Amino acid sequence: LLGLNVWKLAAFGIVLFIFWILYAAINIFSKFLSSRFLRSRVNMNKEVNQSILKFSRLFGLICGVRFLLYLVPMFQFAPRLTSMMIKGLSVLSLFFIVLVVKQFVHILFDYLSGLSKKTANTLDDHLLPILEKLVMIVIWAFGIIYMLDYMDVNVTALLAGISIGGLALALAAQDTVKNFFGSIMIFLDKPFQIGDRVHFKGVDGKVEEVGIRATRIRTFGDSITYVPNALIADSVIDNKGLRVYRRFRTEFGITYDTPPAKIEKFVEGIREIIKLHPGTKKESYEVHMTGFNESSISILMYTFFTVPNWTEELKAKHEILSAVLKLAEKLAVDFAFPTQNLHIKEVPAQNTWVKSKNKETNRLNEDLKAALADINLYFKKKDRLPKAVGQEGED
């Protein structure tokens, strides 16, 4: 039949039946062993179960194909047919081996994904899928090279041609290559994590995804910005998501007619507000009168918030500033705004002016001596201000 002895065809059919039985037995056995081995090590979700099922079937197919490959020469078919069957079964077994390795790598990365979810770094969750794709590309590349080599294809010449073409492609796509290596540096250095707020070169927002070519950042205008990874790798990144404390610095301008004693009480009251607020860092704050502006006396408030996010930071600022307004209302302290006063003075006669000037000078000298005496006593007081608390100030 078809140029072949009937007994050979019948024997080949029996061999195929044995192949099917062998495949089914090895499939069930390997599925049992692999699931039992992985049950305590990998999260047995639906995707992992499908990978185990595919792995078991492919392993059974490999064993069955190798069994057929061992028995084919015994049938003594025509040399050309025997050679084609041997090469075809060999290439098929190599193809199944590549698929088995692919499923094994998929299960391995699923296990690593479970470990990465237990870590605080969120970049690992995005790095693993990229690494998995790269490993899959390498596996398929080596598998295709081995299959071509087995089919007597000149792999050396093929690789040489691919290398020259790859060099030309790399020269034409320098920016893409730079972005690829920039993504590698981001994953190695880990300057930020997914969800961190970053600021660099005019870009300000939260990191949503780190890809092979670009990083996706959602700005505070709710737009998406794609930043090339090469630019990020060469930039100075201000990672605001890693802040332990959030600084709050502001100045209050009060009117010049505020008495010094009232200014002291106002400053002490602001310090007490910082101490009483539950979201401030009690070990580091500064509240002082820092200067005289054109139309106001400047009071500096410098503190830190121990809050987890921007929303809580805004809430804490609101509460602090509301408390300062209430304090100013209770103490009758007025906040200043830009003003100008115009004074018109009549010029007295020359003799009267000289006498009044000398009299005024003498009175001012006496007032200066009295004021310096009071200031000297003020500086000598030990309890004139609360105990100094804080950290190094800024320039």
Q: Bin the helical content.
A: 55-70%
Largest sheet, in brief, is:
5 strands, antiparallel
Evaluate the radius of gyration: 41 Å
SS-based structural class? alpha+beta
How large a portion of the residues is in β-strands, by DSSP E?
A: 5-15%
Number of strand segments: 8
Mean pLDDT across all amino acids: 77
H-E order: HHHHHHEEEEHEEHEEHH
User: Which parts are unreliable, with pLDDT below 50 for 5 consecutive residues or more?
Assistant: 384-395
List the strand order in the largest sheet.
Answer: 4-3-2-1-5
Terminal Cα span? 99 Å
Instruction: Please state the overall shape, judged from the principal axes of the Cα atoms.
Output: rod-shaped
SS field, number of helical segments: 10
